[in-house]
Amino acid sequence: MLKSSRGGFWEELFIVSGNFGAQVMYGVYMVFLNGVFAAGVNPLFLVVFGNLVTAVVVLPFAVVLEKKKWPSKLNATLLSHFLLLSLGGVTLFQALTLVGIKKASPDIASAMPNLAPGLIFLIAACLRFEKFDACCWYSRAKILGTLVCLTGAMAMCFLQSPSESPSLTSNLSALLSMPFTLDKAIYSDWMLGCFYLLIGVVFLSCTTVLQAATMLEFQAPLSLVVVTSVMGSLLTALWQVISEGNISVGPSTLSIARIVGVVLLGGVLVGVCVAFQTWCISKKGPVLVAIFSPIQTVSTVVLSAILLGQMITPGSLAGIVLMFAGLYVVLWAKNNEDLTAVGGNDDPQPHVEDVEKPLLS
Fold first, then answer.
1. Sign of CA dihedral 188, 190, 193, 198
2. Are 228 and 86 within 8 A, CB to CB?
3. Distance (Å, rounded) from C-alpha 140 to C-alpha 154?
4. If 86 and its partner were Cys, which of 33, 150, 231, 332 is the partner (CB 3.0–4.6 Å)?
5. Looking at residue 163, what is its pLDDT?
């Protein structure tokens, strides 16, 4: 339950409704992209120009809210962090996600990011950025939640149909036999798309840990979004030129005007949502923002069923439930761990920068 703040009831209502609306918009855009890719638009093209639009949208917020936090000069370490964040968190993550949507489905793509909290905890713990105590119930809960999330993700990948998914009323024998009756090339493409999405989340998790380290020196999250969006766009453009010879839309059946509209829509949508969620984190913390993320998956599933006829299977529905359950177990453990640290205990520990904070947004 939200605690009262200076903004009172209306501020809290704005935060809750805004986060709900942001996740619904993400879900709508996921389904919309499925149609865009079906028309032949190159995913790399969307990454290049979509991130430029995002940078333009977020830049005014960064200037107004964070200009005083900008460092007087940038050192080589910080610049290398910007480069790695742009490469992993923008170019590779977004490109793999968009290709994953094209090969698999919006449902899988919207569900995969729910793996991030658990994966980031594991990465941070392995690098000793995050304290891990095998005797601590909260650390055990994070591990359990991560395993549950991974189980749900695997269930979604293997039990959802690459083509037309049967409805929830389908008989069990048809459901079990379906993956084996599909054309092998189609099923192979589907699994490749799921693999791309999973690898994309791994890149996102790794760069989030690096982002936490970067934020210790560069404490301006919106400005960081602008910098990495621009650099990521340039890196993706370079990738497209090297791999394809030029920066092209692809053999699209859409007009240039419609494609420009798609790019503007995506860039503005992402930019506004990022700015809003960053403000919410500063007001209420990252966990509150994170608990709304499953709404994106639900919205995508519902819209895919209505607009694309992709009814979810019982097995895949079970996978979604497992992912949500695992996510909330991780968030519950993290929140209670933070409350315990704030409340104090008999054996106080020295302060350690929380690398999980940036991921929970």
1. negative
2. yes
3. 21
4. 231
5. 53
What values do phi and psi take at 2, rounded to 5?
Answer: -75, 140
Q: What is the residue-averaged pLDDT of the chain? A: 79
Q: What is the DSSP letter of 311?
A: P
The structure tokens 């293997």 sit at: 158
Residue with more model confidence, 7 or 71: 71
| The pLDDT of residue 317 | 82
Q: Phi/psi of residue 212, each to 5°? A: -60, -40
pLDDT on residue 326: 86
- Altogether, the residues listed in the chain come to a count of 361
Domain extent listing, the chain: 12-66+73-342+354-359
Q: Please, are residues 231 and 82 in contact by the beta-carbon 8 Å criterion?
A: yes
Are 300 and 107 within 8 A, CB to CB?
yes
Dihedral sign, CA of 127, 131, 135, 138? negative
CA distance 197 to 190: 11
Would you say the C-alpha torsion 164, 168, 170, 172 has a positive or negative sign?
positive
Q: What is the pLDDT of residues 100-120, one digit of tens each?
A: 888 888 888 888 888 887 888
Mean pLDDT of 311-340: 79
pLDDT at 217 over 50: yes
351 vs 341: CA distance, rounded Å: 9
**CA atoms of 220 and 66, how far apart (whole Å):** 6
Tokens of 67: 């200009």
d(CA 295, CA 23): 6
Residue type, 235: L
pLDDT in tens, 339-361: 665 555 544 443 444 544 444 43
Please report the DSSP string for 111-172 in residue order: HGGGGHHHHHHHHHHHTTSS---TT-HHHHHHHHHHHHHHHHHHHHHHHS-SSSPPPTTS-H
Residue-wise pLDDT for 183-206, tens only, equals: 666 778 888 888 999 999 999 888
CB 99 within 8 A of CB 46: no
Confidence (pTM): 0.77
- Closest alpha carbon to 123 in 328, 355, 361, 357: 355
Which conformational region is residue 5 in: left (phi greater than 0), alpha (psi within -120 to 50 degrees), or beta? beta
